[in-house]
Structure formats: C-alpha cells, structure tokens
Amino acid sequence: MTFAAISTAVISIFLILNIVLAGFVVFLERRDAGATWAWLLVLFFIPVVGFVLYLIFGQNLSRKKIFEWKDKRKIGIMEITDTQINMLRNGDFPFHDNKTAQFKDLVYMLLVNDSAVLTQDNSVDIFTDGNEKFQALMNDIRGAKDHVHLVYYIMRNDRLGNELLSLLVEKAKQGVEVRVLYDAMGSRRLPRKFFRPLIDAGGKVSAFFPAIIPHLNLQVNYRNHRKLAIIDGAVGYIGGFNIGDEYLGLNKRFGYWRDTHLKIYGKAVFAMQTRFILDWNQASSSKINYEDRLFPEIEAVGDTDVQIVSSGPDSEWEQIKYGYIKLINSAKDYILIQTPYFIPDSSVLDALKIAVLSGVDVRLMIPNKPDHPFVYWATYSNVGELLKAGAKVYIYENGFIHAKTMVADGKIASVGTANIDVRSFRLNFEVNAFLYDQELVEELVHIFEKDVTLSRELTYEQYLQRPKVIRFKESVSRLLSPVL
C-alpha cells in the first residue's frame, strides 16, 4: 500500500470519527448551545486537529463518580445544613446581625444548593498586596501546632515557593501534620523532586487530576483553581493569590500584582476545612477522617457573617454563578466588579445589562494587559456590550489586576477564586467567600475607589474607535469563548 493510500485511509478514519464525535457532542453531552456550536466548528473546519483537541479539552467530566465521594464526605455538615434550612423556612433563624437578614434569600439559595452554611461572628482581614499576604500566612504557619492544609492552583519552584517549602519542612519535622494539594495542570512546571524534602520530613503531598500519560492530561479542562490555607482549623486564607514570585510583583512582564485575598478567623474556617478534606480525599489515597481536632472550638471575635461557596464539575448547580446573579439582582445603587477575565455567559451579562438599564451604577475593572491573549480579547468583546448599556469600565494601569471581587451597595460582597467567565462557572473547581458585613464591605469599596485612581476609564466612544485588527481579534476570541 502506498503512502498516499495510507494517508487517505487515516484521514478518512479521522473524518468518520469526527462525524461520530459531532453527533456525540450534539445529542449526548449536556452543554450550552454556544459551547456546542464552538466545538462543532472546530471539529468540521480542522477535523484531525479538532479531534485531538476535543479529546484533550472537550470531554465532560463524569459527575457520577465525583458525586459518590462528594455525597459520602459531606455527611459531616448535612445536619447543620438541614437545621439552618428549616430555621430560614420557618422565619426563626437567629441572625446576630439584622442586616444579614435582608439577604436571607441569597443565604437560603447558597445553603440549599451547596450546603454553604452561614457562619457568624467571624473576623476577616483583607490583603491586596502579595508581600503582606504571604508574610501573614507564613507567620501563621510558623505558629501552627497541629496541622497545615494548603491547596493552590499554581505553585512555583522559585524564591517564594522554596521559602514556603522550607517552612513547611520545618513544621513537618516538628510533628505538625502538613498536607499540600496542588493542581497538576496549573503547577505542571514543578519538577518532580520539588516536594521530596517535605515528603521525607513526614509531610503529605498530592496532585489534583494528574496526567495518567506523561505530558498528556485528558482532564486538562477540569482544574482545581481553588486557593485555600487552613492552619489548626482556626485560621483560613482564601482568595486569588497563587504561590510564585510574580504574585510578589517580581515578574517584569506583569509588574505589580494586584489581587484580593482574605484571612478569616472563626467558624467559616470549618467550611474551608471541609472543602479541603473533600478535595484531598478525591485526589489522595491517604484519606482524611473527620476528627474533632480538625474542627476546634473557636471563640467569636468578629462581626462578619460568611458563607463559603464552592462550585465545579462536581456540582449539580453553578452555585457561584447563581450567587453572582443574585447579588447583582439585589443591588439598588451600585455594583463594583474586579476580574481579570470577563467572559460571562448570557445569564450574567443580561443580569448586568438589566441592572444598568434599571439605573444601577455598574462599574467593571479589568487589566490593561493579557496573561492569556484569547481570553483578553474575548473580555474586550464582552466589555463593549456593557459600555453600550451605560456601564463604566476601568482599565487598571498599575500592573496586573487578578482580583475576583463583586460588591453590591456596600452591604454584601464576594471574594474568592472564581472569575466572571464560563470556565470558572462550569469547568474549574472554585471557591468564594460571600461576606455579609457593611463595615468590611465598605473597606472593599474604598479599595476599588483607590484602584480607580490607578486606572483609566474606557468610554464607549473610545471603544468604537478601536482598530480593525483589534475587532478581528475580538471576533475570533468571542467565537471561541465558550471553549476557552
């Protein structure tokens, strides 16, 4: 058989597989229409390459297996969840702050959909600078007596990464239980030997969804984008900072790294601990059992009510997205949003446009430079629709803004790992803190206002004057946005 005949046969096989795969995408996979059309275009216009891309990026994660471990391990909080649901239904929930009661519909929705227990009387500190955040985190790790649990999407083999590793090794040698969970894709550049000193010291390390075949991860689409740190079950960190020198502003490409991270002391840490245990037990063969020492008695020291909300392929509902929409719909005066990527689906975009057209002051802040080009131009494409409706858009100029925050009327806010994009809503494993505390939320408002002074406003008139090459990039990126 000639080479030409073999090539023709191989291409024919791929074309047949493409047709079968296209039918699978349309009739069997549960996707939104935009993602379905995007994959069909990829499969039909670049059949061989498209087939390979679909195998790597396009497969939906089987929820059945995930639900099995999730349901079994959530038994520890179901009793509290049921109690709070019943009290909210009966109207006798003991709110310590009556201002939280006005958001009981949101509290109830997050509770029912995600077992996001409302915890009261937490103390919360806000970090916007990586140096300050990591200094505080390392100080808390130094003081750890029982355990340190970390989950991060990105961990680097650089100055910060090695400084943290050395500290964890030191604590492990002291007898503190140290567990580190990292995302296999986000931290793919880590050398295998990086964690060897920690493992030799007695620490435990696990990768989330590692590649079965080296350098070919067929679950690349489903990543653990969460960033959590829990120390002794009493102190927790949640937000946008990963572990690497760029988050200290040491990367010349990005410059100053502007993010938002929270340090929480209080019972909200119990929910963060539960989240870590669920993720760890999915990824590791060395399971964590629910023990009292992991959930110690904590004295009430603050005034902030918090719900820790998770979402991902293991979730029946898109909880964080629903929380965003509910928060948007609750606003009467203003909505402040900071996100590095703005690629919302139609439900979120419509909610924001409805808010603007109803007289709500909607303000969006995005970066002035891309870390992912297609995502950046897709963001600009969506920004145009908000500008047309009358929203204000600010381009952050003082480095790179990576914060994921949303504030409504200075009364309620969300801070966490979820961007305003389809990937965060449906594909990534994410976690956010919904905050009910006017004083704390007003601090986030002041932070936004300070960032505005370091930004330039993008008007609709300026947007319409962008060059044709930019419009082309936007159009292509927007077409691909359902699969980005």
From TrEMBL:
One GO MF term attached to the UniProt entry: cardiolipin synthase activity
PROSITE patterns for the chain: PLD
A biological-process GO annotation: cardiolipin biosynthetic process
Localisation per UniProt entry: Cell membrane
Keywords: Cell membrane, Lipid biosynthesis, Lipid metabolism, Membrane, Phospholipid biosynthesis, Phospholipid metabolism, Repeat, Transferase, Transmembrane, Transmembrane helix
GO CC terms, sorted: plasma membrane
EC number(s) reported in the record: 2.7.8.-
Active site: H225, K227, D232, H402, K404, D409
Cell membrane as UniProt keyword: yes
InterPro entries given in the database record: Cardiolipin_synth_Firmi, Cardiolipin_synthase, CLS_N, PLD-like_dom, PLipase_D/transphosphatidylase
Catalytic activity: 2 a 1,2-diacyl-sn-glycero-3-phospho-(1'-sn-glycerol) = a cardiolipin + glycerol
Chloroplast in keyword set: no
Membrane topology: Multi-pass membrane protein
Residues passing through the membrane, by range: 6-28, 35-57
Residue stretches making up the PLD phosphodiesterase domain: 220-247, 397-424
Reported function: Catalyzes the reversible phosphatidyl group transfer from one phosphatidylglycerol molecule to another to form cardiolipin (CL) (diphosphatidylglycerol) and glycerol.
HAMAP family: Cardiolipin_synth_Cls
Database matches in PANTHER family: CARDIOLIPIN SYNTHASE, PHOSPHOLIPASE D
Family, per entry: Belongs to the phospholipase D family. Cardiolipin synthase subfamily.
Name of this protein: Cardiolipin synthase
Species this chain originates from: Siminovitchia acidinfaciens
Classification lineage: Bacteria, Bacillati, Bacillota, Bacilli, Bacillales
